[in-house]
Design brief:
D-Maltodextrin-Binding Protein, domain 2, 11 strands, about 20% strand, about 325 residues, 5-stranded mixed beta sheet, alpha/beta
Length: about 325
Amino acid sequence: MRLLFRTILSLAVAAAFATPFAAPLAAQTYPSKPVTIVVGFTPGAASDLIARTVGERLGAVFNQTVIVDNRAGASGNIAATYVARAPADGHTLLIGVDAIMTSNVYLFKDIAFDPVKDFRPISNAGANIIGLAVAADLPVKNVAELIAYAKANPGKLSYGSSGIGSPHHLSGELLRKLTGVQITHVPYKGGGAAINDLVGGHIPMAFLSMSAAVPMLSTGKIKLLAVVEKTRYAGMPELPTIGETVPGFEMSSWLGFFAPAGTPDAIVAQLNSEIGKILKSDAVRDKFSALGFAAAGSTPAELAETVKTGLEVRGQLIKAAGIQQE
């Protein structure tokens, strides 16, 4: 009886001391094999370039190979579904863009993942800055003049975007909602086609990623009026935000790192710390800025809140725009 009691007591003590050390142990043994960062778009896309830049540096820190796996298709849904079903051990990560983690829920009928329940947020990576550009011959110099022109010419203006339901499209819908202007959406299959038609004079305005818009400023055929983010873009601080003219206007195109739900806290914390250090480095910030991307890390909780807010805002805009699910 006394032996049985001692055995039970020993097990109880062992269990009590095992829990506090479980999380650190998981971090010490991670990563134990190559890490894969899954990207939902083709090589060369902003998400791909960011994954490769961060992945290369993570590999050096972890002394492990970091693989970038491009699983393009269905607006990123294929990649997200793959990661949602992957083992929750931190060895398979997702570059989740705002469209995948918020808008797609409202744009697709048969979506095989839940952006909240199926993932653990790790860290924001930053924002893909979007600008409001107009043709050089449009007689406006700022957002206020554009709104006045649109109201004086209802239905005359159309705006291009990189596709239905994209943050570029929803920026136009938000402008319509908050100002009452009548502008017509013209969706393109990517920002490149939209900028080409703007430069060619086929559309009078467009919401474009800065990476596409800035190189075209030298042609003298387009003008940048503002950015859609809440705050001014550090790369072009002289450019105002639309919100400075239209109170309440804010749209952001962001990217973040996610792991499958159930990934241990210690691994999430380790990834958050290392990715945060990488994003703060001058070399990475400068490289991203050249792409029209503002690098900025976050806590997992902050990224979770970004997803939650995005789901609410995007849902309202997509419903108001009358966009039907595919």
